[in-house]
Write a structure and sequence with these properties.
Two copies of one chain form a homodimer. By secondary structure, chain A is of the alpha+beta class. The first copy, chain A, has helices at about 15-25, 30-45, 55-65, 95-110, 130-135, 190-200, 220-225, 235-250, 255-260, 280-295, 305-310, 315-320, 325-330; strands at about 1-5, 10, 75-80, 85-95, 115-125, 140-145, 165-170, 180-185, 210, 215, 225, 270-280, 320-325. In chain A, β4, α4 (about 95-110) and β5 form a beta-alpha-beta unit.
Chain lengths: ~325, ~325
């Protein structure tokens, strides 16, 4: 690692995972929990998704130190109904549960046709493309969504109620990386707004409203007010569905309950995740999807969801990453 | 029925279903198929959703008369995998299949936890809120989506590839009508653009592009060019997911294939529908959802999805509906 002129620290990509893992262990994680979270952070940085990379470490560490999150979690998997895999996250971060559940959930989908992974008692602070991609690598299509803390107003309202509530979907491919999208129900991901606030940038129009309910371009005002859903009331419908699927349906907190019960230590609140795995109809399904992908790519200016992110890997691998000195020190402190 | 000064015909609401049913039977439907489609048209008109009401009848009739659609369809239900109900629509319109599958699909979801209704070999020309609402009345949450013919470009492109690809979701409530949303992946439903074209109205900004790939407010140009997804690339992701779920996954045509194989008689192309039913976790789930609904309604200016539509029923019931004379005659002709 190397200190640069503008109070940032450069890390080689290979340094990210051990750096994160060591800090997580100092904050109370055992080896497997630290490894699962550090792998997620490494993958985020590797794919240029910096808002879900080391930038999230202070939150991860704070919730371990406050005792809210169990750094020695041992997720428990049971089959509550024939097509439902119930995963109790044991109060830990979600990535270890994702690793544990990927194969059994994919196998259940293959035997039942469809299977629901109902993840409760967990803390989700990462990007959802990672878990749906894990499932697609097992040969199934996957849909996942999770809530957080209120950030978006319901359609017609002005006060935050729904989380930014990301939805991710992955489709398996035989001779290529899975097709994967992962998108917040907000116009902009909360992590991006937080980065804009940290770096003093203004936001584009339409991203959010201030505490007074009026449009603003100031990220700090938006973080105090409300972010806006994409596509107006239609994005709000998606966010509402996510609250019901990842909360009411599976028996976990919704965003407004999560916020009310959180200790505000800077990390994520406790919540649930709805993960659906679907078995394609063999080779015919995969071949059919490839036909659609060809039709997408024949148009100029297009690419498949997920490929833009992957195109960043080579550059990040060559150049390494750069984080603020203050962030480096927070992660590196005892 | 009464002819008005501006070349329209007024119908009492009670006249809608028999009027539609008689026309469907003249065009070749048997009693049960005619009744199922006519009930859908009646429900659409009753809820003020005129773009899915009698306005669709010429399309329904044309596809019966051309022989593309089987007016005497007898949908066949099999359980291909333990949590999958495979419904072969027998080349008929979808509403009868929806009636047949609602209870067995809900029952399967209750026993398995989750169940997929895979509807193939069918022709879908109605609004999806009707089938998800049927399921919610059986006590399950439901998600449905279907493709059509290319209308939306993929993200980054300018040529139609995805259908307007609606997504609908319903949640059951104990002492109230189900919470239901049903939204096209396009900014505006195709039916609305067709009505604007018919009535000579211009479209708001952002609804579509012309055949030259440039924004336009002319509905006729948009019908020749492309409609735009809501929320930019995020709505395009939803539309892409719908193609894969209602096409590649269940073994049916996607929009671009449906268009290539259609006889362009004015009715819908053959396609599939992905219908997911999810069993809530008993009363706890329902109570939890009511908590969220209260939080929505406490904000000024809000209402639950589906309630806006229902609020129109009383007025439509009192005033009846008015359709163009030419539409009346098309439906009324031999």
């Amino acid at each position: 690692m190397e200190k640069t002129a503008t109070d940032t620290v450069k890390l080689a990509l290979e340094e990210v995972k051990p750096f994160a893992s060591a800090a997580l262990k100092r904050a109370g994680c055992d080896e497997v929990n630290a490894d699962a979270v550090a792998e997620c952070i490494f993958q985020a940085e590797r794919h240029g998704a910096h808002s879900h990379g080391l930038f999230r470490m202070p939150g991860y560490l704070a919730s371990l130190k406050s005792g809210k999150v169990n750094g020695k979690a041992s997720p428990k998997i049971t089959t509550s109904k024939p097509a439902v895999l119930s995963v109790d996250g044991d109060g830990g971060y979600a990535p270890l549960a994702h690793q544990y559940m990927a194969k059994p959930l994919a196998d259940l989908a293959k035997s039942q046709g469809v299977a629901l992974g109902s993840l409760t008692n967990t803390f989700h602070f990462a990007a959802l493309w990672q878990e749906v991609e894990l499932l697609a690598r097992q040969g199934v299509a996957a849909f996942a969504c999770t809530s957080f803390k209120p950030a978006l107003p319901p359609a017609g309202g002005t006060k935050p109620l729904y989380g930014t509530n990301p939805v991710a979907f992955a489709w398996p491919r035989e001779n290529a990386e899975p097709m994967v999208f992962d998108q917040a129900s907000a116009v902009m991901a909360r992590g991006e707004v937080m980065i804009a606030a940290r770096e003093g940038h203004t936001l584009p129009d339409g991203v959010g409203i201030g505490p007074d309910g009026k449009p603003t371009n100031d990220p700090n005002e938006v973080l105090k007010g409300a972010m806006l859903p994409y596509g107006g009331y239609k994005g709000a419908s998606i966010a509402l569905m996510v609250e019901l699927l990842a909360g009411a349906l599976i028996g976990e907190q919704m965003s407004y309950e999560a916020a009310a019960n959180d200790n505000n230590d800077g990390g994520p609140p406790r919540g649930g995740e709805f993960i659906l795995a679907l078995a394609p109809n063999g080779n015919a399904s995969l071949k059919s999807a490839e036909g659609l992908f060809s039709q997408i790519l024949v148009q100029e200016g297009t690419r498949l969801p997920g490929d833009g992110r992957r195109m960043k890997c080579a550059k990040v691998s060559e150049n390494g990453i750069e984080i603020p000195q203050s962030l480096f020190e927070t992660i590196n402190s005892k």
